[in-house]
Amino acid sequence: MTIKVKSWRYFEDVSVGEKRKSDLKLITEEEIINFAKQYDPQWFHTDKDEAKNSNFKGIIASGIHVAALWRLLDHEINSDINFVCGIGWDNVRWKNPLRPNSKIYVTSECISKSNTSSKDRGVAVFDHSVKYEDATDILVFKGTCLIYKKQ
After folding, report:
1. What is the phi/psi pair of residue 61, to 5°?
2. Residue 6 lies in a domain
């Protein structure tokens, strides 16, 4: 997925309290297993039969996969912000497992902004989440980012 930005939003354009929500994305069992085989090959991510005997009673996505899905879907809703970079995640919690053949979406809310000693960037903190279609949380965290200011 390549996202083309028509116009950038800068630090001054981002408002505390603004909320954004992505479209739904279907996560298949094949996708979960393929990701896990490459990056997190634990048996309850990769072996359908053995996973039935786990505490999860079936295949679940790796937490790292869930984080990667957040990144992908967050680009859909926040790629217009002229970020310098992310500088930290706090209060990271995987609240529920991501199961195959589920539809998910992500949300973000800007909860604070502050200036830095630099004249060309500011800091913004966002509440981020990955949710099931019914709004049940899968992953939640606070993300701190540097955003370019208008010059």
Report:
1. -75, 145
2. no
Kindly give the parts of the chain with pLDDT less than 70.
Answer: 1-6
Q: How many domains does the chain have?
A: 1
CATH code of 50's domain: 3.10.129.10
Instruction: Provide the whole-model pTM.
Output: 0.92
Q: Which domain holds residue 46?
A: 11-148
